[in-house]
Amino acid sequence: MQGEISVSGAKNAAVAIIPAALISDGVCVIDNIPDIDDVEVLADTLRSLGAKVDTSVPGQITIDPTEVKSVCPSEKLTRKMRASYYLMGALLARFGEAKVPPPGGCNIGKRPIDQHLKGFEALGAKIKQEGNIIEITADELLGDDIYLDFASVGATINIMLAACFARGRTTIENAAKEPEIIDLSSMLNKMGAQIRGAGTSEITINGEKYEPKFLLYNEKVDGKVYLRLTLDLNDVTLKAGDTFTMNAIITPWGSQELNDVYFTVIDEKTGEQYLDKPYP
Predict the structure, then answer these.
(1) Band of the pLDDT at 223, cuts 50, 70, 90?
(2) Whole-number Å distance between alpha carbons of 162 and 93
């Protein structure tokens, strides 16, 4: 048996990068988008704010945020997903104001957003809750040193978004290090931001402005599932948007149980083969 599989983009990166398009002053094209409900919900949410969003091309989303005027996303839509809280940082950065319902989505333990709000306040925002709406306002955002009580991925991303438009330098200490943070930083830097240290425990952002075409990292979960499938195949081709993360998956799995599998990993950006040999 032989097979070829395209590894989809990372869900956790997609749900952060799509709201981040709101702070762009031009059209954003994001490739390797996973085909998941959260992406469709986010697309509809951005449309409710006034953005033009095109998802007609498989694996790609095009966002034109230039006509966005509202800072109040649909509560019906935001209640459908946890990552809707990234709208807070994006809207605060662009408009100095966000009126967002508490996030919805899955209920996996207690996942408060106090670290997100702590970061916004450190940047100069004022926060109050009116009914089901969290109102975040700032006459001006100013860079500051922010220490997270725990390495929250969501708080790290939200503070990064807001800090892009905060005057001066912002430092996030005890920042989360997950791949989606590196992905977001890469996109924002392509848009003109000045972010350093993503993927480490200390991230610095020098505030200011930003038209990117961006390719998401591969979804690690999908990658692991596909590699397990290779145990039943003789020759496997994995088409990957980012070969760095595929290597991170292949190495530990190969050492465990993939010794007789012949891999070909093709970088979809360059067409180059990354690995083409039995492991190890």
Answers:
(1) very low
(2) 5
Could you confirm whether 28 is annotated as catalytic?
no
What is the value of pTM for the model shown? 0.77
Tens-place pLDDT, residues 100-151: 987 765 443 445 789 999 999 999 999 998 888 899 999 999 999 999 999 9
pLDDT digits (tens, 9 = 90+) for 151-167: 999 999 999 999 999 99
Q: Which of 28, 72, 106, 164 is catalytic?
A: 106
